[in-house]
C-alpha cells in the first residue's frame, strides 16, 4: 500500500493545483501484486471525466474489479447499446480475446444447454448510455469475464438494473469484481479462466448522512438446463444483500488490500469534473465492513 498511497498523495496535489484531468495510464509501471491498475475516461454532456478505475489480473487475464461512480448521469439513456467487444490497447496487458464468444466444452454444453459462456460485463452497458463514447468503452475486455448465461441474463441482470435505478437521485461508488477461485466448470473451451462468482459492492450515504456499504454475490457455476429449483435458488442467492466483510470472506487474504485500493482509486480519480459531492470518503467505505438489519431489509425489499 505504501507506494500506492504515495502516488495518490502526489495525484491529489496535482488536482488541487488545477491541473487538467488526472489519469492513471495503463502501463507496466502501474502494475504490482499481479494487478494492472489504470483509469479510462469518457465524454459526456457535463465534460470529460474518468469513468472507470480498473484492477486487471496479469495471470488470469481477466479483471479483478472495476470501480465506477453512479448517479443521475448513469440513468440518462441518450444512446442505445451497440456491441463492440474488443481488447484494450495497453502495452503488456494480457487479456481474454472477448471479441469472440467464450465457447464451452462439449460437456459444458450438454450440462447447460448453452453453447458459450456469456461475455459478462462487470459494469453493464446500460449504465453508460449517457454518451456513445462511454457506452462503447464498456465493451473493452478489461470489463468482461466469462459468466454463466442463465445468471447473467436472469437475476444478475435484474440486480444490475436495480442498483442503477437506486442511484437515480443518489450518488454512490459501485465496484464489481470476480472471485479469485475458478468455477468447477472452468476453463472455457479455449482455456480461459471462469471465475467462481461475480460480486458487486456499493458505498453511499443514506438520508441521515451515514455511510452504508452493501454487496451481492452472483454464483458463476453453470446452471443446469431445465432445473427450476436450481434457478430459484440462484435467484435467491443473487438477490441476498451481503456486507463488505461477507464479500471479503470469499477472497484469499492476500487480495483484501485490493478492496482498499479500489475505494482510494475511486475517490482519487473518479470525482474530478464529475460535479458530485454526495459521496462518502474512501476511508469511510473501506471501514464499513458490517451492515445493519434495517439496511439489509431495505435492500432485500427493494431488489424483490
Descriptive notes:
Pfam families: Endonuclease_NS. By secondary structure, this protein is of the alpha+beta class. It has one domain (2-303): 3-Layer(aba) Sandwich (Extracellular Endonuclease, Chain A), CATH 3.40.570.10. The chain has helices at residues 2-16, 106-112, 132-137, 149-153, 155-166, 228-239, 244-248, 257-269, 282-287, 293-303, and strands spanning 31-32, 35-44, 47-57, 63-70, 102-103, 116-121, 144-147, 172-178, 197-205, 211-219. It has a 7-stranded antiparallel beta sheet, with helices on both faces. Helix 1 runs parallel beside helix 8. Residues 1-18 have low confidence and may be disordered.
Quick tags:
304 residues, alpha+beta, Extracellular Endonuclease, Chain A, three-stranded antiparallel beta sheet, 10 helices, globular, single-stranded DNA endodeoxyribonuclease activity, metal-binding, nucleic acid binding, RNA endonuclease activity, metal ion binding
Quick description:
Helices cover 30% and strands 22% of the residues. It has ten helices and ten strands.
| CATH class category | Alpha Beta
Remind me, CATH topology?
Extracellular Endonuclease, Chain A
Mean pLDDT: 93
Order of helices and strands: HEEEEEHEHEHHEEEHHHHH
The level of helicity is 25-40%
Strand order of the largest sheet: 1-2-3-4-8-9-10
> CATH homologous superfamily - what is it?
Extracellular Endonuclease, subunit A
Give the CATH architecture: 3-Layer(aba) Sandwich
Q: What is the total number of structural domains?
A: 1
Rounded to the nearest angstrom, the distance between the terminal CA atoms is: 39 Å
Mass-distribution shape:
globular
The computed structural class is alpha+beta
The number of strands is: 10
Number of helices: 10
Q: How large, in whole angstroms, is the Cα Rg?
A: 18 Å
> What's the main sheet like?
7 strands, antiparallel
Strand composition percent: 15-25%
Which regions contain 5 or more consecutive residues with pLDDT less than 50?
1-18
Keywords: Endonuclease, Hydrolase, Metal-binding, Nuclease, Signal
GO biological process, one term: apoptotic DNA fragmentation
GO cellular component, one term: nucleus
Organism: Folsomia candida (Springtail)
Amino acid at each position: 500500500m505504501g507506494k500506492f498511497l504515495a502516488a495518490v498523495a502526489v495525484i491529489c496535489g496535482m488536482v488541487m493545483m488545477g491541473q487538467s484531468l488526472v489519469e492513471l495510464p495503463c502501463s507496466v509501471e502501474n502494475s504490482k501484486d499481479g494487478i494492472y491498475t489504470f483509469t479510462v475516461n469518457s465524454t459526456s454532456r457535463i465534460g470529460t471525466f474518468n469513468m472507470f478505475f480498473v484492477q486487471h489480473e496479469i495471470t488470469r487475464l481477466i479483471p479483478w474489479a472495476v470501480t465506477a461512480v453512479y448517479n443521475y448521469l448513469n440513468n440518462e439513456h441518450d444512446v442505445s447499446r451497440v456491441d463492440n467487444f474488443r481488447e484494450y490497447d495497453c502495452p503488456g496487458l494480457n487479456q481474454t480475446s472477448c471479441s469472440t464468444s467464450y465457447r464451452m466444452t462439449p460437456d459444458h454444453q450438454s450440462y447447460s444447454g448453452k453453447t458459450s459462456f456469456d461475455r459478462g460485463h462487470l459494469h453493464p452497458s446500460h449504465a453508460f448510455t449517457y454518451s456513445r463514447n462511454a457506452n462503447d468503452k464498456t465493451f473493452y475486455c478489461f470489463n468482461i469475464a466469462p459468466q454463466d448465461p442463465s445468471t447473467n441474463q436472469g437475476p444478475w441482470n435484474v440486480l444490475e438494473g436495480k442498483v442503477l435505478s437506486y442511484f437515480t437521485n443518489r450518488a454512490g461508488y459501485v465496484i464489481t469484481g470476480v472471485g479469485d477461485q475458478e468455477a468447477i466448470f472452468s476453463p472455457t473451451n479455449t482455456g480461459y479462466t471462469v471465475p467462481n462468482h461475480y460480486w458487486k459492492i456499493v458505498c453511499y450515504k443514506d438520508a441521515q448522512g451515514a455511510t452504508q456499504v452493501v454487496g451481492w454475490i452472483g454464483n458463476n457455476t453453470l446452471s443446469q438446463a431445465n432445473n427450476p429449483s436450481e434457478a430459484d435458488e440462484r435467484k435467491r442467492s443473487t438477490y441476498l444483500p451481503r456486507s463488505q466483510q461477507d464479500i471479503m470472506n470469499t477472497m484469499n487474504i492476500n487480495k483484501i488490500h485490493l478492496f482498499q485500493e479500489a475505494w482510494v482509486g475511486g475517490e482519487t480519480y473518479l470525482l474530478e469534473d464529475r460535479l458530485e459531492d454526495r459521496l462518502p470518503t474512501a476511508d469511510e467505505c473501506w471501514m464499513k465492513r458490517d451492515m445493519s438489519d434495517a439496511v439489509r431489509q431495505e435492500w432485500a425489499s427493494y431488489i424483490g
